[in-house]
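During the reporting period the student researcher (J.K.) took over the structure-prediction task from the postdoctoral fellow and processed the backlog of single-chain submissions. One of the processed entries is reproduced below for the supervisory committee.
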Amino acid sequence: MSSHLAQEVHLARRHEEILSQRSELLQQMETYLRDKKTKKTWQTQAADAAHKRNAALLNDIEAAEKRLQERIYLLPHPDIVKLETLYWASIKESLPKWEEFLLGRAEVPIGFKKMKATKQSINYPEEDSQK
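J.K. obtained the following structure tokens:
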């Protein structure tokens, strides 16, 4: 009978150890799950913030691209601006020579020849002096 009593005491101690280990493991698991949930919440918040930041950056980039596209159409190339400036300067310079002709009061200005009835060529005085 004493062997049964010793075995009962041994089994009771072993049962207490097992319950203690179980309790410790349950606490560890609860801590792990709580930490995991906190980490997941933090990651979700970080992902949401990153998504909002990326969306804002994308909107800024699209707005900048749109402004640049509009600017391309508003500002002509510098070479074109230069050519236009030279063209209008030439027009202003030669307008007094052509004004009477355009009003029908005079013949073609000196320095310009008539080729055929349908075609006319313009001889510039500078070109003639270089020849």
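The committee noted the following: The first strand starts at residue 112 and ends at 114.
J.K. will present the remaining backlog at the next meeting.
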